[in-house]
Specification:
two-stranded antiparallel sheet; disordered N terminus; 2 strands; Arp2/3 complex 21 kDa subunit ARPC3; mainly alpha; 196 residues
């Protein structure tokens, strides 16, 4: 059985890191909360017609904190959820978010000694790239007119606005996606730290 109350091998916190119920529940809570925030709160607060790309931000952070496999799955689900609550073809954002999460996770591995400002700029670049890729993919379906200067301004503004809400979002996404992952070993001399 997938989840059994009588199973003595499972702990209350979800246990063995095999994709436990607690980890799945955390991810579901984050994705549903992010989708709700995207279509309610962030749709109301626009600057020059641009809002925070919250689902994209969650996808990028899932790749950063969860690694390529977990990040890609979460980003794909976030993209499908985004498409289900907006007027875009189903799968358009999932097509963009999953590869972006994988790319972010691979860059995170290579930039082990980066500073907070550098990570903020990297996050802004990732969000801007995601906005550009979403608009370009939407252009294939005739959803958007591809106007170069306006597109770059929109991507830049969305990136800056998304980075502004990134610190608490990063904490929440890390809490969700690292549930059940093993302890991190810091090979630079800091010891071990528990994830999640």
């Amino acid at each position: 059985m997938w989840c059994s109350i009588r199973d003595p091998q499972r702990s209350v916190r979800g246990g063995s890191g095999d994709g436990s119920v607690t980890g799945r529940f955390r991810v579901a809570v984050i994705l549903l909360t992010a989708a709700t925030a995207q279509v309610t709160v962030f749709e109301e607060f626009r600057v020059a017609g641009v809002s925070v790309e919250f689902m994209l931000l969650v996808s990028v952070l899932a790749g950063y904190h969860g690694g390529p496999e977990r990040g890609a799955v979460i980003a794909f689900c976030a993209g499908l959820l985004h498409d289900s609550v907006t007027a875009t073809p189903m799968g358009l954002h999932a097509l963009v978010y999953a590869p972006l999460a994988v790319a972010t996770s691979h860059l995170e591995v290579r930039l082990a000694r980066s500073t907070r400002p550098f990570l903020g700029v990297g996050l802004a670049v990732a969000v801007a790239a995601g906005v550009l890729a979403s608009v370009l993919a939407g252009g294939l379906f005739g959803l958007h007119d591809l106007d170069g200067p306006r597109l770059v301004r929109t991507a830049g503004l969305a990136a800056v606005m998304s980075v502004a809400v990134a610190p608490p979002t990063s904490w929440a996404v890390r809490w969700a996606v690292t549930a059940g992952l093993p302890v991190d070993l810091d090979l630079r001399g800091g010891g071990a730290e528990s994830r999640g």
